[in-house]
Amino acid sequence: MTAERKRRLHLPGSKRRANPDGTMTIIEHLKELRRRLIICLLAVAATTVVGFVWYQNSAFGLPTLGELMRGPYCELPVHMRITFGPDEECRLLATRPFEMFLLRLKVGAIVGLVLASPVWLYQVWAFITPGLHKTEKRTTFTFVTIAVLLFCAGAVLAYFVLSYGLEFLMGMGDEAQFAALTGQDYFNFLLALLIVFGVSFEVPLLIAALNIVGLLSYDALKDKRRYIAVGLFIFAAFMTPGQDPFSMVAMAVALNILVELSLQFCRVNDKRRGRERPDWLDLDDDEASGAVAAPAPVAPAAPVHAARRLDGTDYSDVL
Questions:
Q1: Full-model pTM
Q2: How far apart are CA 87 and CA 227, in angstroms?
Q3: What is the gyration radius of the CA atoms in the chain, in angstroms?
Q4: CB contact at 8 A, 252 and 232
Q5: How far is CA 200 from CA 114, 256, 258, in A?
Q6: Is 155 helix (H, G, I), strand (E, B) or coil?
């Protein structure tokens, strides 16, 4: 079998030649997407196993994942939670047979998704960059990096605020009852708070993106800071899962600081754009065209010369 026939049939051992301009057919795009999805799924599956094992086992001197997740709950005063065992160890309740296994698998999957983020982010990046120009690639990489950092910053803030929020929530009516949280309720609340804080921290990046594409200017926002601050406090009041004042105030204050930084970015970007924009683009059509000269008189018509053929015959009598 010839090499050309092997290339057409895509048999093993045949090497496909890439198009010099980087273009691909629909089938080739789908095959590329399938290949990258398989790589992402394999990476997430591998890191999920790591998270599942890490949940109950310590390695390299790090605390177990279960201890990290229970940290805010175990920091509560002893009278606000129920302790179990002779050593009064801090634990959560499980009320269903498979609750502990499913909870461990769920937490391991979320941690695996985070640990595998460099792999699947790279796969997404490698899939979309062939259709982008050099400046678009640089801009997209910058925005993705900032988005990941903002999400992580929001999640870290939520983790440290959670202990104060829990103390407030579980102290309401503690003279009449004990709070015995199940693992499912506590971890769902913790994960929801981490996600809400992480996603909310993307708001300043959205403002900067709208300014870069020209849909939002600094002049349209600079006089509305008080309304924005009130709106962010209302947003935090509705978005925090526990509705406790500590989480709401922490989210609102952090968002106000980040939004102010994004407004300063908009101000600098608008000034830079104004320096690069020619002045004549801001003028009216009449002003941009300049002064119109006075009309000049039309010159008198010149006589038409007699037409001659190539052989020299004169046609002046005909004209």
A1: 0.71
A2: 53
A3: 34
A4: yes
A5: 18, 11, 11
A6: helix
**From CA 100, how far away is CA 113, in angstroms rounded?**
20
Residue in this structure with the two tokens 């799924």, named with its chain if needed:
41
Residue 35: closest CA among 118, 127, 100, 99 = 127
Token duo for residue 230? 């009130």
Residues 89 and 32: beta-carbon distance below 8 Å: no
Sequence-ordered list of residues with C-beta below 8 angstroms from that of 49, at least 6 positions apart, any chain: 108, 112
Q: Which amino acid is at 301?
A: A
Query: How far apart, in whole angstroms, are the C-alpha atoms of residue 239 and residue 199?
Result: 10
pLDDT in tens, 200-246: 999 999 999 888 888 888 888 888 889 999 999 999 988 887 777 88
CA distance 258 to 143: 15
As given in the structure block, the two tokens for residue 216 are: 């939002």
Q: What phi and psi, each to the nearest 5 degrees, are found at residue 234?
A: -65, -40
Tokens at residue 280, please? 């004549």
Report DSSP letters for 91-136, one per residue.
--B--STTHHHHHHHHHHHHHHHHHTHHHHHHHHHHHHGGGS-HHH
Sequence length of the chain is: 319
Q: Which helix (H) or strand (E) holds 7?
A: helix 3-9
User: Per-residue pLDDT tens for 254-282?
Assistant: 999 999 999 999 999 888 887 655 554 55
